[in-house]
Amino acid sequence: MRADAFQWLFKCIAMKPPMDQLNPKYEGNRFDKDCRLPTLYFGFVASVDEIIDSAKANGLLPDDVDKRWRLSWSLQALSEHLEYICGIGVQIHYADALTESYKYVIAMYTNYTVGGEKLVEEDEREVLDIIRDTLKLGSQAPKWWWGRRQGLSQNIPPLEP
Hints:
Order of helices and strands: HEHHEEHHE
Radius of gyration: 16 Å
Largest sheet: 4 strands, antiparallel, barrel
Number of strands: 4
Distance between the termini: 39 Å
Strand content: 15-25%
Strand order of the largest sheet: 1-3-2-4
C-alpha cells in the first residue's frame, strides 16, 4: 500500500509543476474559514543540505544541536534571520515542497497571504535577492511552488541546546 501512496504522490507532482505566475483561481483568502484551496508558495526550493549549510554559514546552527533537530532548527532560524535582514513587513514562509528533486520551499508569499503582504516590485526583487543569496541558490528563479504544509515551530526544540 505504501508504494501505491508514493506512486500517487509522484503522479500528483508531475501534474502540478511550479508556476511563474499565480493562477487567479488559486488566490485564497486567509480570513475565509471555508476556503479549501491548496497552498502555494512564492519563492525558492532548496535541499536539506542547502538549508543546513546556509544556517551554519550564517552562524545560526550551533554545533551541538542534536542531529534530529538540525533541519527544524535551521528552517526556523533561517526564516527569522531572513525576516530580520529583509526588514519590517516581510514574513518568510517555508513548507515541504511537492517536487521530486527538492525538499523545501522558502517563500515570501503564499497564495493566501499575497494580497496583504505584496511588496512593490523593487522591494520584492530585493527580498528575493536576499533569500537567494543567503541560501546560495545561484540563478534560481522564484516560482509558485505547491507545498504540503506550512512550516511552523511546533517541532522546534527550545533554543537552548
